[in-house]
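yo, UDP-N-acetylmuramoyl-tripeptide--D-alanyl-D-alanine ligase is done. seq:
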Amino acid sequence: MKPDWENPKNPKFRWISTSSREIKKDTVFVPLRAERDGHQFIADALKAGASGFLCEKNHPILKTLSKEDQKKAIFVKDTLVALGKLSNFHRNRFNPTIIAITGSSGKTTTKDLLGGLFSYMDSNSIVITEKNYNNEIGVPFTLFRITELTRVVICEMGMNHRGEIERLSKIAEPTHSLITNIGSAHIENLKSRENIAEEKSDIILGLRSSGVLFVPDDLDFLDRIKQKSKKQNVKLVVWKHAKNPELKINSIEKNGFKLQWKKEIIHWKIPGSKLLCNVRGMIAVGSFFGIPEYQMKRTIQSYKSPNKRLNIKKGYFTIIDDSYNANPESVLSSIDASLQYAQGKEIVWVLGTMKELGKFSKYYHEKVGKELEKTSKGTLLAFGEDTIPMVKQFSRGKYFQDKQGIISYIKNEIPKGAVILIKGSRSMKMEEITSELESFKG
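structure:
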């Protein structure tokens, strides 16, 4: 049984779902293998009204289904691979501009900035990656949201193993791509920053003919990426970051920056100079597409950080909640932002382990500790065994075996009004500390 994707006005399947709890009319259910085998929920999906389902050939679950339900099966070798192929097929029914974004950090900021850049369009004309749906499941779902009305797609692409960016790029077939930076995130699996650069630059391998790649002028391994782009016949657009004549810092404020754009002053309401590279990337894309300057300025001034990313929460303490995730570069960027925001007030850095660093873990945790020591300010409260080398490098550092110990210490020892940055890898669940401190009344 094959879905009738060829006819967009009357397909047998209009929707895709990987959850049996999210089935609606004309949905094909895609069972994926994770902690549990999604094939176990095929019957539930059919009861909920699924019109059909993908199924790996000879899967034993088929024997438990009725003959009538078995007729609704679409047999594939691998349901995850099939999900990608289906989304690619759907993508090729239409012809929107697709801008794919990758990088070690700053992907979501750039995605949201580009979303703001194209927000002058009708809402039906633009599709933007939701939340952090940037992997082999998330990217297909972004593509499935494309309709005949879609003109622009902003598609975030992440990875933690070799080969993932190439697969995602070939699924999405972007017309344009952008690399924010090359850092050390996922170096445990990629083994070196050179390999990370190679993986990130693989985003051009799925580009359509006459494709374009946007990169900053201070991108590590830029010469290598230039050679690769030339070999793939990709147009390279390099935006100026370090010495950008168009957008300069006019003055530094507690909550961000006054930026000088030519003769005009505009406000960027997020502390931390590292994010300005993403702003300049948005301007490069906007200039390439001929977006009016007033729209770019409006995008900069209206930008707001997404949840758990440099969110300022005022109460007994002022909390900078950056708990969503962490890698060495993003941690240093957040420390820079917190120092700017604190402006001399008592400052506390609550840092959890930076995961997926492998044999480089000690080096990078020590590096963060050394950078903190250079500030001659603040207190470090660290959680997770890998942070011990960080604490040893910082004269005002304390190590805790659990999050509750950190919470108790802050409540009893840190004065009212202190600025507290909270950051760590996703698996550390640092937002639990944020929640406890946010409700603290003293």
